[in-house]
Predict the 3D structure of the following.
Amino acid sequence: MKASVYHDVNDFRLKDMETPNIGYGEVLLKLKACGVCGTDIHKAIHRSVPPETVLGHEFAGEIVMIGEGVTKFNVGDRVVGAIHVPCFTCHYCQRQQYTLCPEFKQTNIVPGGFSEYIHLSERHVRHLLFKIPDSMSYLHASLAEPVACCIHGQKAADIRPGDNVLIMGAGPIGLIHGQLLKHKDVSKVIISDISSYKLKKAKKFGIDYPVNIKNENLKAVVNQVTNNEGVDIVIIAAGISSLLPEAIQLLRRGGRVICFSPFEQNSEVQIDASRFFKDEISIVGTYSVSPFEFEEAIIHISNGTIDAKSMITHEMSLDQVGEAINFAANPAEKVIKVVITD
């Protein structure tokens, strides 16, 4: 089979690899679509994975082989899933903190989503594989994983009806958050970015106040929208740690910051720590996704809560993964979501 293999920055090579074998309880999946995620971009640009890695985890595909003991699925089923599976029995899993499970990152799809086929373990098949409706295209289904991640993150935000919410970053994740929020009976949603293209998309998705921070004062907009009270929730959807002090400044008393995107390793920022006591604010980190958000994500894509057609701006082929990474990473490009298709 063919796979796009990462070797270094700007060095992806299309290679022949052995098609994975499957065992008891396992399945072989023919990849039909795999989204380019911000973490794929981060790993490729910052060399945070070793050479010979096959990236990609936002996959949708068709089951072409099932192992003995598989009863939930059949050959020909159209499915989506994710890369990591918790153990469900450890200290963290018992507290429903599934993404902190020590075994979570030890589980992986093989070799990765930027390939023709992937092997899914028995644990994946049992807990983290979901059928998609016949009416849903593989292209649109590839959004299930990032949508599920955003649902997972918003659980941590404890969003209430009538809340005012600020999203910092209008990339794919920020725009998914915005669309989900508009179906939660929140009051107003503000989103900030430096890309006029992305902010126009945000307006199309019904987000109330797109703010271009190159020529608008974000604090002034927040004060105007909230009558100088500040927002109830800030979702940081860009991997820029310097956004954290600003987010805290824009919070209402009792508000909460959700750190959704990965910050730079060992990055340090200065924040007004007095607010934790006098204003009872909080900062919460949220990572990845558990198996319990996927069915909701599939429903949101199916019923149009997530405008999948407008979100996916570009399709590229397996031999263009390196090009897709650079294209999606370039803030000057008019791109939201790139999906690799067969």
About this structure: DSSP finds 13 helices and 15 strands in the chain. The first helix runs from residue 38 to 46. The chain has a mean pLDDT of 96. The radius of gyration is 20 Å.
